[in-house]
Request: fold
Amino acid sequence: MTSTEMRRCLGVIIMFLLFAADGFAQNSNDYRRVSLSLYGGATLGYPDDDNQIFGSNYNTFTETTYNFGGGVQYAISPFWSAELGYRYNTIKGVGDGGFETVIHSASLKNTFNFNRLYRRNQISEWVNPYLILGFEQDYFKYELGDEDASGFESAILGGLGVAVSITNSVDVFSQFEIKMASNGLDNSRRGFPFDQVGMATGGIRINFGRGDSKPLNLSPAVKKLTDAEYDNFIESTEEFKAASREIEAQRTKLTEMEEKFDESEKNYREKIERLDAFTKVLESRIDTLEYRLDNLEISVEERIQEGDQVLKSEVPAGHYVQVFAATSYESANKVKEIFHELLSDEFENPEDIVFVIERGRFYEVLVGNFSQLEDAQRAHDIASSRLSDAFIITFPRPLHLKDEYRGTAILHD
Reply:
């Protein structure tokens, strides 16, 4: 085979293997199960007539040549992988009459990973010795001058190797294989019923899969449990489940308590806001009353002695303006004096029309009486400019209020 033909053959093989490896890898998500290997190395010669246990044995002497190949490997289990591959090999006789046999082989190999035997040791993560057992289907062609022969033969092979993991994606390996092939590779069928081919190779293996996944042979080791260990495991599992259920129940209770707390907090906040608003209203009312009392400008020295009070007859019929009411006569009388001065510009007799009456426990300051409602309205406008609570009242009161004003009398100086 020429070098050009060899390169073409190798290129076709690599493309085929890459396509096959990628196709297999699509269903490998948990671990990297699919890998592509490329290798090359020496096919050992048979330099003397001593039979070699590890090496090559033919019916004639041969020299050391080369071989190369590749394959797609699928990890069936952490311990066992199967590989479909191809190998190109040559065998050359020594001396002037040296022949050349070219072998094209399709192979099925089983690889058994020994790192599983010491899986709990850290070295198993990057060093993996392995055993190879399989068979090959060979097409070989023998040539010596004008003489040639060819044929299809089956062969069995075995070997040992060691792989070193560089990353989860890349391994490098070295291996030695012995192949029991056709007895006609040197075109001489005598001696042993097979020709023995010894091959030492090295190569690279590319593992396909997700970026965070490992090759299957690096998966955690499986430990066989005794009955007692299994029972303890089941018991621990049940305890863990019970603890998990209890934690979930406590979490549910905590959630319910938080919801109730949030609801109570919301209700209390609304109540506080209502109380705060009511307090502000009361404070505003108190401020208004204090302001009104301050604006009355009542002198403390102006006192009206009770002996000066004169009880008059009942309030005559007519319209009045009530401007003030208090339980203290002194306060009512001071308001009366202020309105004497306030109404002096509008009415001729303010001292006569502004007076205090006693009704129950209250002393009320009235302005009146007015026979015309318009006059009462005019007095009301003046009074409400000073005290906004002033209002017009008419006597006699309706019948249903008769008892309210029974015994009402006019009081003045």
